[in-house]
Amino acid sequence: GDSATDANLAILGKLRELQIVIVAPSKASAVTDAGLRHLASLSKLEYLSLGGTSVTDAGLELAANWPHLRR
């Protein structure tokens, strides 16, 4: 399907120039901390929306990898 999953985030993590990522899964369990780790290499990330996911505060600690993150 077209819904966000951890596997989809692995693909996005290879697009190093991404600045905006909006994650909208059809099931919260489809996107987890493990999936978020795939985005750690996106050093230019400025905006990240994770509404409706299962990402926890521990997963959000990755924000240190995104020096340009505003939201």
Structural topology:
Blueprint: H1 6-12, E1 20-22, H2 33-36, E2 47-49, H3 57-60
Parallel strand pairs: 1-2
Note the run of SSEs as H and E.
HEHEH
Contiguous low-pLDDT stretches (5 residues minimum) are none
User: What is the end-to-end distance?
Assistant: 27 Å
Q: Portion of residues in helices?
A: 10-25%
Notes on the structure:
Strands 1-2 form a two-stranded parallel sheet. The chain has helices at residues 6-12, 33-36, 57-60; strands at residues 20-22, 47-49. It contains 3 helices and 2 strands. The model has no long low-confidence stretch (mean pLDDT 92). Helices cover 21% and strands 8% of the residues. Helix 2 links the parallel strand 1 (20-22) and strand 2. It is α+β, with helices and mostly antiparallel strands and 71 residues long.
Short description:
This protein is α+β, with helices and mostly antiparallel strands and 71 residues long. It has three helices and two strands; from the N terminus they run αβαβα. 21% of the residues are buried.
